[in-house]
Amino acid sequence: MPKKAPPDPDPELDPDHGPHERGPVSARLVRVLRDSPAGRGWRRSREIELGQRSLGFAALGFLTLVPLLVVVSAADPAHGRGFAEWLGDGLGVSRAARLQVAQLFARPGQVLQTTTAFGLAALAVFGLSFGAAVQTGYEKIWDLAPARWYARWRQVVWLAVLVGTLYVTATTTLWRHSAAGTLTATLSAVLFFWWSQWMLLGGGIALGALLPGAVLTALGLLGLRGFSRLVFSPLIASSAVTYGPFGTVLVVQSWLVGVGVVVFGGAMLGRLVHEELPTASQALKRRTRHRGR
Q1: pTM, to two decimals
Q2: Exposed, middle or buried: residue 290 (CB in 10 Å: 0-12, 13-18, 19+)?
Q3: What is the pLDDT of residues 139-183, one digit of tens each?
């Protein structure tokens, strides 16, 4: 019986081989890239399924969180500007694009008149499913076992704080008109995401380890706002002409996908930064000692 030929090595598992024989220089380069922080981050993003989790975040956010935000932003009709204007600020889009977004939502007064107790209860239940999705993502990032069913109260507390934070953001306009206000909002976002990780993870990870992820998430959201101003603002205008209101919905949904990438990706990169800090610190100390000799 003829012997079977050995299977070809997987290039990802064996960097020294591939479709074509690699030389020692290219093999060494592949190993360096694979073992670098960027390579570990890429593998980690695939392990936690960052893309799929971001899509799920966007779907749940649009189906459950958006109606909740509509009600929250309408809770103060005297000072609140409505969810459409709040979303326009979050997107950082132009005035013309904000008008297209405003056509998707009712005015604050109309929202309060049509809101029922049953609708609010349904939004609360759906909001808990959104909190569960965020909690699961954080657990995957830190390799923690899923929380017990009786720990659902953490999601309730997290949702309540989220609603309060969004209420303050939607009804306050001072932070939008000054650099100091923007800095305050960014620091508030750092505190919120720092606390969110600790709360949803049940205190299983030290606060010091969670801080880099909170900082990166807040900075990522700030960068996403700038990206939205350059990309989503003209895209809303063109999509509204081509597809009507549905085109605006597609752009908002795409923005929510970006928010999901920032939320989960920021926490994931924060863990990598936390793990790399001791190594980088030791390397810096060795280099300093070597120069001092």
Answers
A1: 0.77
A2: exposed
A3: 999 999 998 888 889 998 998 898 788 777 766 655 555 677 778
